[in-house]
Each structure stands twice: as C-alpha cells, then as structure tokens.
Amino acid sequence: MIGYLYSTSFAARPLFGEQVDDFERRARVLLDEHTAAGGLLEHGSFPVVLGRRG
Question: Are 1 and 31 in contact (CB under 8 A)?
Fold first, then answer.
C-alpha cells in the first residue's frame, strides 16, 4: 500500500521530505489496525475506452 502511494503523483516519496520516515511509521500503524480487523479490500473499476479510426 505504501509503495502504491509512492508511485502516485500526489504522494510520491520526495513530497514527504524529511517527514517520510514518520509518514511510513504512522501509515504502518494504521494499516496494521485495519488488517487486524479483517483485512483490506479495494473496490475499484478501471474503465477502458477503445476506438479505431475508420
């Protein structure tokens, strides 16, 4: 999950600056709490538009 966030433009690792270690520590605590409660589920859709010149 943290790696996914780092791969995005809005949560890229350099954006956290000197607070990156604090962010990771706090994120892991929150993720551990949620996984202990039954796991993490992501409900998402990925629309795809296909086209061809005719």
Answer: yes
Q: Is 1:24 a contact under the CB 8 Å cutoff?
A: no
Q: What is the 3-state secondary structure (H, E, C) of the chain?
A: CHHHHHCCCCCCHHHHHHHHHHHHHHHHHHHHHHHHCCCCCCCCCCCCCCCCCC
Reply yes or no on whether the pLDDT at 41 is more than 90.
no
Instruction: Determine if the pTM surpasses 0.90.
Output: no
Query: CA quadruple 42, 32, 3, 26: dihedral positive or negative?
Result: positive
Give mean pLDDT, residues 7-32: 95
